[in-house]
Amino acid sequence: MHVNDFHQPELGLSVTEAARRAQIIGATIATIGEHGYAKTSFARIKERASLSSTRIISYHFTNKAGLMQQVLSAVTDLKSSFLTERTEGVVDPADRRGMLRAYIESEVAFLGAYPECVRVMLEMAAHADDTEGWSMAGIVVQQVRVGQLARQLTQGQREGVFGEFAPDVMAMSVSQAVDGVAAQLAADPKLDLETYGRQLADIFERAAAA
Q1: What pTM did the predictor assign?
Q2: What total of structural domains would you count in the chain?
């Protein structure tokens, strides 16, 4: 993971300011990945980013809620771009079964490419009631983890491609299965993610079939 992964040009910011914000976001993600959300403080982020003062963080993000909102936005944007790059021009969006398979395989591949980002999403969802954090974090994470896939499954049912089931339950089952891969990867860094993703896609493609 590189700081440029989170370099998001914004109106009114100089190149230096945008680079500093990306640096802080990257350091926050790495800190959450190592210590967890609850133990991530401005002091730890300052140390990780090699900043002279925590006031630099406050200058760019005001408070913890503002920082966490931007962190989650950066992570979800990165994940969306990753999934798009793996499916755009490869799978016909009208091919619901193909999109389901591509979605699952891409989710598993994202675990290997950006494990810290995956942990950030899980940690922020688990601490959504943190009074200092961003109150919408849990809702956003839920939408990313379940909402998009549930809509795809619903459309597939309308078209007769998928059978009868509750789309939100199926989408959550997929999400939880991917979480299981994350746990397995943590225990075995040499896990063959490509094979695991393909077999997981096989299971859910059969489960969703009409």
Answers
A1: 0.82
A2: 1
